[in-house]
Amino acid sequence: MYNVCIFAGTTEGRELVALLSGRGNVALTACVATDYGETMLSPADNLTVLSGRMDEEEMISLMRRSSFDLVIDATHPYASAVTENISSACESTGCEYLRVLRDHSDRADRAVFVPDISSAVAFLDDTEGNILLTTGSKELSLFTPLKNFSDRVWARVLPMDSSLAACREAGLQPAHIIAMQGPFSEEMNIASLKAVNAAFLVTKDTGGAGGFNEKISAASAAGAQVVVIGRPAQKEGLGLSAATALICSRFSLSRPVSVDIVGIGPGSRDNMTAQVLRAVESADCLIGAKRMLRAFSSPGKGAFEAVSPDAICGFIRSHPEYSRFAVLMSGDTGFFSGAKKLLPMLEGCRTKLLPGLSSMSYLCSRLALSYEQAVPVSLHGRNADAVPYVRSNPLVFVLTGGERGVNELCASLTGAGLGSVKMHIGQRLSYPDESIVSGTASELAEGSYDSLSAVLIENGEPDTVRAFGLPDSAFIRADSVPMTKSEVRAVCMSKLRVASDSVCWDIGAGSGSVSVEMALAAFKGSVYAIEKKEDALRLLGENISRFGASNIIPVGGSAPEACAGLPSPSRVFIGGSGGNLKEIISLILEKNPHARIVATAVTLETAAELTACMKEFPFTETEAVSVSTAKGRKAGPYNLMTAQNPVFIFTFQAGEKRS
Q1: Which residues, including other chains, have CB under 8 Å from residue 633's CB and lie 6 or more apart?
Q2: What does the alpha-carbon distance between residue 560 and residue 337 come to, in Å, rounded to a whole number?
Q3: The pTM is what?
Q4: Are 182 and 207 in contact (CB under 8 A)?
Q5: Cα separations in angstroms, 481 against 460, 493, 510, 533, 537
Q6: Residues whose CB is less than 8 angstroms from the CB of residue 145 and which lie 6 or more positions away in sequence, other chains included
């Protein structure tokens, strides 16, 4: 059994207490200065909490009684007298001493740095304006020599009797006392500064764990000058991460690994949440793309360039020298983010997902547009097509990728007959060189744009009605290539029940009328159009271009041979079998026993083959219908109906229905 004592009046101290709490091989004593400090620690079977300030003799007495194997000094960096007492007591009793150091914060621009409180008083004596002190109550009396102290100074202190007593003894009137418990967000700091109309904010360099960064950013926002009192000389020690590693190694403990997956928004620090900035500040290693690491890297903090979940997870698992990781994700962690794949891979780690500002909400705010009806699409590193979304929605947000990503988007929209839709292209969003360009897809097609642009597309005339059976006149046709007519096509599509992400086969595609209908319905999926005739393949390609149906993949050859290497289908239309109907169905069911099949026949012989298949294959759902249609035509002053050949439509499926 190891016997450990932690002087734990700080965030670092509380984290180390949490690390050792509940460990069966450790007897843990935590020393805190106040009853309030005791309430900040969670109870544990192996934990004894001692509350109250101790002098050196009292510390020596405690250490002699308990014979600690290790004494950890995790007190505040400004509590130099306490640190000196703990160190001396350890030396007197022979207890091993470990000092845990808090990292320094980055020096704030335009802040005034002074070595001690007397220097801060000397500086403030030559100024005018209200002062907000956030240095605590313990040393409040040292500020009383300041001219007009009781009129100029407001003190923010802990809501404790001792703190309020110190304020009264210093001569502060009740209206100048703000009794609150942190941590304080940037917004709360701004509110405090504005409430007292502060021209100056006096603080210590408490580091990221002490809310220093939130004070600095709040002072900048409120127009207050920051006065930073420097830290006293520190004893040698270890940072929290290194101390954690040493403790775990010394006492044979599994080391906890914390991973914060943070959304950094469009990129500018001004648009990041205080929670995200705190996570980045407290991490001992950052992981992300090069441009992100450049913005956040600092001396002494590890950094690893990676974007794929496998690489990120591999690095975390193989680098035990780090215990607190921040994985930087652009935009929002829940909006086309790698966090979705990364999270399940981090089993055993303490993970936290911190959201950021999405580029969609940012761009819409810059354009003063509501995005509640916007449909989001990502083309960045994905096989996707924005055309069907733009065609059927009034507002579409698109994340592009690659140097020509925006140009390719404009070209695909223009080629699909959507060249007149209005586009807003946001580049370098939130940075000083931010640019938003607006125009139609055809007008913007030849421009030069940033590789990670965000685009908002407005379609004033969306095709919001999705009905099967496009008019035959909508297709490019040829007498030599057969086409499934509109009315029959509508019935077949209804029977197929194509889902938005279906993988479809159209066997005997001909001019591609069914392929196009499938592609429009399966806009998140794909359609493989199998056709053996060269003239039909050419016509198919023309109709793909006419409808902008980039999710149709033409496949030349005869079925079933041409289908052998294709992905497993969930929906299959058989418009022509070339006499290989049974072989085709066998291959389909081998690929996917639950595929839904719809086949048409115009001859009695093909209908008989399909009827035989109903009995031969293990289908649990079968249906056969005959569709006869007639179309009106002019005959002089009269209108007559001309009958079309009847068409047999067979539907087959086995087992549960799948998309």
Answers
A1: 639, 640, 641, 642
A2: 40
A3: 0.60
A4: no
A5: 36, 20, 6, 9, 10
A6: 121
The span from the CA of 521 to the CA of 267, in Å, is 37
Question: Distance (Å, rounded) from C-alpha 467 to C-alpha 517?
Answer: 9
Strands 596-601 and 647-653: antiparallel
Name the region of 214 (left: φ>0; alpha: ψ -120 to 50; beta: rest): alpha
CA distance 381 to 304: 21
- Structure tokens of 237? 């020690």
Residue 118 has pLDDT above 50, yes or no: yes
- Structurally, what CATH architecture does the domain formed by 257-357 represent? 3-Layer(aba) Sandwich (3.40)
User: Is residue 408 within 8 Å of 428, Cβ to Cβ?
Assistant: no
Question: What single-letter DSSP state applies at residue 269?
Answer: G
What average pLDDT does range 319-348 have in this prediction?
89
Nearest to 196 by CA among 136, 226, 155, 139: 155
Spatial contact of 525 and 502, defined as CB atoms under 8 Å apart: yes
Task: State both tokens at 117.
Answer: 């409180």
360-458 — its CATH code?
3.30.950.10
Neighbours of 369 (CB within 10 A): 15
Share of the chain above pLDDT 90, in %: 63
Query: Does the domain at residues 2-101 carry the CATH identifier 3.40.50.720?
Result: yes
User: pLDDT tens digit string along 508-528?
Assistant: 999 999 999 999 999 889 999
Taking only the tens place, the pLDDT of each residue in 214-272 is 888 899 999 999 999 988 777 889 988 788 888 888 888 877 789 999 999 988 888 88
Tokens of 338: 């790698």
User: 2-101 with 112-229: one CATH topology?
Assistant: yes
pLDDT at 658 (0 to 100) = 44
Looking only at the bridges linking them, the beta strands covering 621-627 and 647-653 are antiparallel
Q: Is 582:559 a contact under the CB 8 Å cutoff?
A: no
Pick one of 3.50.50.60, 3.40.50.150, 3.30.70.270, 3.90.79.10 as the CATH number of 472-653: 3.40.50.150
Nearest to 204 by CA among 232, 224, 174: 232
Task: Please state the rounded mean pLDDT for residues 172-194.
Answer: 90
For 112-229, which CATH class? Answer: alpha beta
Quote the CA–CA distance of 505 and 606 in Å, as a whole number: 19
Report the distance separating Cα 169 and Cα 408, nearest Å.
72
Stretch among 143-147, 163-167, 278-282, 354-358 having the lowest mean pLDDT: 278-282
Closest CA to 78 of 228, 218, 183, 221: 228
Lowest-confidence segment of 185-189, 204-208, 325-329 by average pLDDT? 204-208
What is the chain's mean pLDDT, rounded? 90
β pairing state of 225-229 and 238-239: unpaired
Q: Which two tokens stand for residue 414?
A: 């223009």
SS (H, E, C) 358-427: CHHHHHHHHCCCCCCCCEEEECCCCCCCCHHHHHHCCEEEEECCCCCHHHHHHHHHHHCCCCCCEEEEEE
